[in-house]
Amino acid sequence: MDLMETQFRTDQRKRKLGISMVVPIYNEEESIPRLYTSIRSACERTEQHYEIIFIDDGSRDESFSKLEALHREDPHVKVIRFRKNYGQTAAMAAGFRAARGDIVVSMDGDLQNDPADLPRLLAKIDEGYDVVCGWRKARKDKLISRKIPSWIANWIIGKITQVPIHDNGCSLKAYRKKIIKQVSLYSELHRFIPAMASLAGARITEIVVTHHARQFGVSKYGISRAWKVLSDLFLIKLLTGFVTRPSLWFGLGALCALLVGVGGMLGGMIVGVGGITFLTVAFLFCSLAGHLLVMGILGEVIVETGNYRPSKMIVVQ
After folding, report:
1. Which residue has the higher pLDDT, 223 or 131?
2. Mean model confidence pLDDT for the chain
3. What's the number of domains the chain is made of?
4. Taking the C-alpha atoms of 301, 303, 308 and 309 in order, what is their torsion angle to the nearest 10 degrees?
5. In which domain, by residue range, is 269 found?
6. How far apart are CA 120 and CA 172, in angstroms?
7. Looking at residue 207, which CATH number applies to its domain?
8. Are 128 and 252 contained in the same domain?
9. What percent of the chain has pLDDT over 90?
10. pTM for the predicted model, two decimal places
């Protein structure tokens, strides 16, 4: 590294960054050169200082080698490498933690998202919004295995979270740094970022974005991930509806269990219905009510005093 490049990198660190591009990569060696060129071109058109953060999510091909070469050639490029594949949520979380720009933009690394939409995302941020979501209205994916499950999932997510986004699965989104830094991501929660950002009072909107057919490689997702979305919906409802008062959530369950238990005991003792078996089941419902009540109290304690966040082991280049 010569003196001029060293000085340039030092100046970049001192400048106030406007945009941080966060791009998870998993076995995308053929896409990387074209992806980098298009992202750099879009960022330069904004005339803002920027950084491009690639997260290699344990790729087994030559993706990391290509990213490492880009890092050596372009001081705007940062590379985070996972020792193994942790999934898109963990990759995005690592990128968000490393981002220094005032506006953080996430996108996929398979060339299906178009960086040319970046100026329109930033224009919406300038209007006062905190989160701008991309909507792949003319989606270039298979109907049965991708589009139909996505339509159903987005409708369910919108109803449960009360955040009316047409396309939660689109990775092309823009966030104010102060908002995305408050969102704790784990499991498969990257598709629920708008709902989680609503907990921080974020102003959320969406715009129609360009979507391209996959040019290289194969999709890493399929209809088999539907069960993960459904299992995470319960957690999201708990977070968005009862995050500040977990005792209310568990208290409602405890009340229902208690009513069933007490009613069963009275029926078993007074009417003599079901004998000892009926009384035993009624007693178990009463015990369940007690357990749920204790869990609600513990939840209140954790919300008030807890601040633990597990992290992944990563290597930063």
Report:
1. 131
2. 81
3. 2
4. 150
5. 246-303
6. 12
7. 3.90.550.10
8. no
9. 40
10. 0.71
